[in-house]
Amino acid sequence: MRDPIELEVFKNIYHSIAEEMGAALRRTSFSPNIKERRDYSCAVFDSAGRVVAMGDHMPVHLGSMPMSVAAAIEYSALEPGDIVMLNDPFRGGTHLPDITLVMPVYVQKIKGSGRGRPLHTITTKPDFYVASRAHHADVGGTYPGSMGPCREIYQEGLRIPRVKIMREGKIVADVLALLLNNVRTPEEREGDLGAQIAACQTGARRLTEICGRYGLARTIQAAGELLDYSEEMMRSFLASVPPGTYRAEDFLDNDGVDDKPVRIAVTLRVRGRSGKSSRNKKSPAAITIDFTGSDPQVQGAINAVEAITVSACFYVFRCLLREDVPATAGLMRPIDVIAPLGTVVNAKPPAAVAGGNVETSQRIVDVLLRALAQAIPDRIPAAASGTMNNLTIGGMDPRSREPFAYYETIAGGMGARPTKDGVSGVHTHMTNSLNTPAEALKYAYPVRLRRYSFRPGSGGTGLHHGGDGIVREIEVLTDAQVTLLADRRSRGPYGLSDGADGAPGRTIIVRKDGSEEEIPGKTSVRLRSGDRVRVESPGGGGWGKPDGTSKT
Fold first, then answer.
1. CA separation for the pair 207, 202 (Å, rounded)
2. DSSP secondary-structure letter at 426?
C-alpha cells in the first residue's frame, strides 16, 4: 500500500531536483538563447532510463529526451564521472541544435581492499541518470544558426553520435575540439556545454543527498511508485473519454522546396477502461494514436523523427491531466503510438529535420487536439499560432570582428478556449520559451529592435476570441544572413465550434530605402546594414459563434 503523503513528498523532491538543474544551467550559460529565452530542459531518470521527473521546461525537449537517454545507456558502460553527449535525431535526438548530455548517478558503492593496497571503491550499475538538453544557437552547417531550409541532414550542422564528452570526471579534449572547430561561435558553445555539465553535476549531487537522507532503497521505491501513480491517473482520464474512433488532419504550408501542403493525419482509437497499472506494461493500451495516412517524408527540413512525434503525444495527454500529476514515463504506458517509418512524422536518414522539431511538432499537436475535440469538446481549445517562427541572423560582428549567430522563436496567439479567450503574444504548446529582451538582444548582437507589439485583430473571432499574434521588427547593423523557418503562412490556425480561424502569419523585409518585400515562411535572404526583417505572427483560432449558438 502506497503512502500518499510520502509519494507527494518524493514527487516534489524529484521535481525540485530537475528544476534546480535547470536553474544551474540558466545561470551559468553564455548564450542569450539559453540564459534569456530558457531554451533548455532537464530531467531525472531511474536506473532503467525511465523518466521520473521533469523540470517545467520545453515540452518538445522533455517528451523526446527519454529516447536520447536510452541511446546513451545502450552506447557503452557509463562509469562514475562519465557524461555522454549526442544530438543525432535518428538516435533519440530532435534536431541538431539540441545537444543532450546524459550522466549516470552512482549512489550505492561496494567498498573493498586488496592486500597491501588502500581502500578502493567498486561501483555497481548506475542508480539514476540525469540529463540536460539545450538548444545551441549554432552547430555549424550551411546557415548561421543551423536552422535553414536544407534538403539533407548533412547541410544542417554537425551530427554528434553517442560520444563521451567527459570520462572519469575529465573533459575529453579531442571530442570538444572536434565540436568547437565545426561551429561559428566556439566560445559560446563551450560555455553553454559547460553549463549543461554543471546542471548534470547539480542533479547528481542532489540525488546523492536525498538517498543519504532517506536511504537508497526507499528513494528508488518511491520513483517506481511515482511511475505507477502516473499511469493510474492517465488510465483514469482515458476511461472518461467516450470510446470510439476519432480522426483529424491538418497541413503544413509546404516543405520549403515543393510548394504544396504537407498532410498530417491521425486516428485515435479510444478503448475506455483497460486494466490497472503494470510496471511491466502488461496491461493493454487504453488508446492508440495512429498517424497512418500522413504524407511521406519530404525534401525540405520539416521532417519529424519518431522522438518528436512521441513527444507531441506525451505533451497533449499530459495537458489533459491535473497539474499535480507527476510527469513520468508512466503516463505513456496506456498509450500506443503508431508512426509509420518513412513518413513526415517518422523520417529516415538522411532527411533534413531542423523544422520537424519546431514546426511539425506544433502541427502534430494541432491534429491531436482537433481529433480530441470530437470526443471531449468542452476540454479542447482552438488552434494556437501553430508555428515557432524560427528566426536566425548571422554574420560578422563589427564590434568584435568575430562571427555571431542569433536565434530565437517568436510568440503568437493562443487559441480560444471553451470558457475564455486565448492569450495574446505567448509561446504555446511545444515551446515554452521567452522572447529575447530588447536590452539583451542589443547587447549581444549587432542588431536593433525597432518594433515589438501585439498584432491587433489577428486572433479569430467567436464567442471567445483567439489571442493576437505579435509584430517583431529587427534592424541589422551589419551585413547579415537572415533565415526563417516558419509556418501558418498560407492558412490560419483553425477555430472550433464555429469560431473563426486566426490570421495567417507573414514576414516582410524592409530595405534601407523603405521598399518592402514579403518573403516565404521557409527561406534565407541576405540583408545589408540598415535593412529590417518584420515578423507578424499568426493569431489563435476563435471558439464558438459570437451569438453563443454553437454546437459542441
1. 9
2. B
Q: Side chain identity at 333, as an amino acid letter?
A: R
The rounded Cα 493 to chain-centroid distance in angstroms is 20
Mean per-residue pLDDT over the chain, rounded: 93
> Which residue bears the cell 554543471?
198
Do 410 and 403 meet the contact criterion of CB atoms below 8 Å apart? no
- How is the chain split among helix, strand and coil, in percent rounded to 5? 30, 25, 45
Q: What percent of the chain has pLDDT over 90?
A: 88
Hey, what's the cell of 472? 517583431
Helices 4-28/216-240 angle, 10° precision: 100
What span, in angstroms and rounded, lies between the C-alpha atoms of 493 and 225?
Answer: 40
Amino acid identity of 538? P
8 A C-beta contact, residue 284 and residue 235: no
Coil, helix or strand at residue 50: coil
- As a whole number of angstroms, the distance between CA 412 and CA 388 comes to 8
Residue 103 CA to residue 85 CA, distance in Å, equals: 9
Contact call for residues 487 and 300 (beta carbons, < 8 A): no
Dihedral sign of CA atoms 183, 189, 194, 195 in order? negative
Angle between the N-to-C axes of helices 4-28 and 186-214, in degrees from 0 to 180, rounded to the nearest 10: 160
Q: Dihedrals φ, ψ of 200, to 5°?
A: -65, -45
Query: How far are the Cα atoms of 84, 451, 484 from residue 200, in angstroms, in the given order?
Result: 11, 38, 32
With contact defined as beta carbons under 8 Å apart, do 292 and 342 qualify? Answer: no
The bridge status of strand 170-171 relative to strand 532-536 is unpaired
Q: What is the DSSP string of 343-393?
A: BTTBPPTT---HHIIIIIHHHHHHHHHHHHHHH-GGG-PPP------EEEE
Distances, alpha carbon 414 to alpha carbons 321, 361, 493, in Å: 19, 16, 10
Q: How far apart are the first and last CA of the chain?
A: 42
Alpha-helical segments (H) within 263-338:
306-319
DSSP string, 136-176: -S---SSSTTS-S--SSGGGT-----SEEEEETTEE-HHHH
Cell 540558466 locates to: 26
Which residue, among 89, 100, 87, 136, has the nearest Cα to 360 in the 3D structure? 89
Concatenate the DSSP letters of all residues of 100-121 into one string: EEEEEE---EEEEE-TTS-EEE
The set of cell numbers assigned to 438 is 530588447
User: For the segment 33-90, what is each residue's pLDDT rounded down to a tens digit?
Assistant: 999 999 999 999 999 999 999 988 887 777 789 999 999 999 888 999 999 999 999 9
Q: Using an 8 Å Cβ cutoff, are 328 and 127 in contact?
A: no
pLDDT of res. 118: 41
CB 293 within 8 A of CB 338: no
Residue with C-alpha cell 459542441?
552
Closest CA to 189 of 501, 493, 402: 402
Question: Is this structure's pTM higher than 0.85?
Answer: yes
